[in-house]
Amino acid sequence: MYPMDTIKTRMQMDQANPFRLAGIFGGVGGSLAGQVPYGVLTFGSYEMYKKSLLSQFPEVKPIFMYALAAVMGDLTGSGWLCPSEVVKQRMQAGMHGSTKDAAVSIWRSKGLVGFYEGYFGGVARDVPFRVAQLTSYEMTKNLYLRLKGRKLEEEKSKTRKRKSTAENRMELSSVEAAACGAICGTFSAAVTAPLDRIKTLLMTDSAAYGGSVASCASKIVREEGIRGLMTGVVPRVIYIAPSVVIFFVAYEQMQQRLRYF
């Protein structure tokens, strides 16, 4: 889904011909170097935080524990992700010829701080996105499994099947995980689109937008109106929703298999 992310970035920067094929995979190597460890840190810690919070605060509604675990998980991974995002977005914008050139240019001009340009803009986007994504997924999943459990109980009472048979089937299939992922992916991508544009502008030209989330948002609204905050929302949803579907299908299948070890 990376090409859709490139198109979205170009649209957010108001570039001419954002659908051009040249450079459509620009920065993909740096993105993978950032996204894979980020995924390990974020989702691995999320599962640990979630398990701990649910056991320590059983009287609190689970949705609040999912949200808090999502915040903590994303913050855990954010320090690793930001440098790769800065490099990736500059490559997508056509500002450098290679990932190496982008990294060297950033280092020479601003040093280590340059790799964390727009960090708070990234966190301001990623934390709400992760909260929306994981809480909506957990709630959708739990609701579906409850409905599935009722149906299985009805079938069991009619056919007199053993209870263990119904219990062993109380997991999401790949198709079911894809459906839940499509719902939460579309929702989370759409509601965080304004924050995504702010992050893109801060990472590619922070000085021109005041260097902060508030100043960047104010400039966009002042020059483009409220609609300017939603620039790139369509390619963002087209990019995020299928990628979330792919992710949660793999995520559920891997979790189910790891339970046997």
Automatic annotation (TrEMBL):
Cellular component terms (Gene Ontology): membrane
Membrane topology category: Multi-pass membrane protein
PROSITE patterns linked: SOLCAR
Protein keywords: Membrane, Repeat, Transmembrane, Transmembrane helix, Transport
InterPro entries reported for this sequence: MCP_dom_sf, MCP_transmembrane
Main subcellular localisation: membrane
Transmembrane segments: 21-43, 63-82, 170-193, 233-251
Pfam families in UniProt: Mito_carr
Solcar repeats: 61-143, 172-257
Location within or outside the cell: Membrane
Family named by the database record: Belongs to the mitochondrial carrier (TC 2.A.29) family.
Protein name as it appears in the record: Mitochondrial carrier protein
Source organism per UniProt: Phaeodactylum tricornutum (strain CCAP 1055/1)
